[in-house]
Structures are given as structure tokens and as C-alpha cells.
Amino acid sequence: MAGDGIDVDVDDLRTMVTRLGNFKTEFEEIGGDTDDVSDAVGRPAGRSELRDKVDEFQSGWDGNREVVVEDLDKVYQHLKDFVDTIGELDVELAKDPE
What does 34-86 look like in DSSP terms, one character per residue? Predict the structure, then answer.
């Protein structure tokens, strides 16, 4: 019947998987950059309060970042699996349209 089924742009989904994968990788690599911030702050006017606050934020950020990375990985894997399945289904349906 006309109008039955779904219309999915597989190329757009593949692009989305690639971009999400790149974002996930960049987010994972942020960890080392937080040390640079603490070093850059140093001890202005010979005091360490600002650096202490940066270190405190960094400790919380590192723990939360790990959770976000895990969640991003789950979303990435689910989307990739979906796109792979849709791609395989598209190839099979193109072989036998019935």
C-alpha cells in the first residue's frame, strides 16, 4: 500500500553517528585539559584560594564527566546499532521489494 512504512534518510543518520562519535571522543579527551586550567591559575597575589576552587571544581567535573561519557557512549552505540540495522534492512528490501 502507498504510504505504508517509514521514510528514513540513512545518509543523514550515518552523518549523525559520525558526528556523535567525534563529539564523544573530544569529550573523553577533555580530562587532561582540566589540569592545564589549575596550572594556569597558579597562585595570584601569592594566595591559593582561587586555585583551590578550581581544583575543587575539577574534582567534581572529572567524576561527572565520566558519567556523561558513559551515557554518550550508550547513546552512540544505540544510534549506531539502529543505523546499521536500518542500512541492512534497506539493502535487503532493495533486493526484494515484496
Answer: HHHHHHHH--GGG--HHHHHHHHHHHHHHHHHHHHHHHHHHHHHHHHHHHHHH
pTM: 0.67
Q: Of 2, 20, 10, whose CA–CA distance to 69 is shortest?
A: 20
For 87, counting Cβ atoms within 10 Å of its Cβ (0-12 exposed, 13-18 middle, 19+ buried), the class is: middle
Residue 42's pLDDT is what?
A: 78
- 3-state SS, residue 2: coil
Rounded Cα distance between 50 and 43, Å, is 8
Cβ count near 20 (within 10 Å): 16
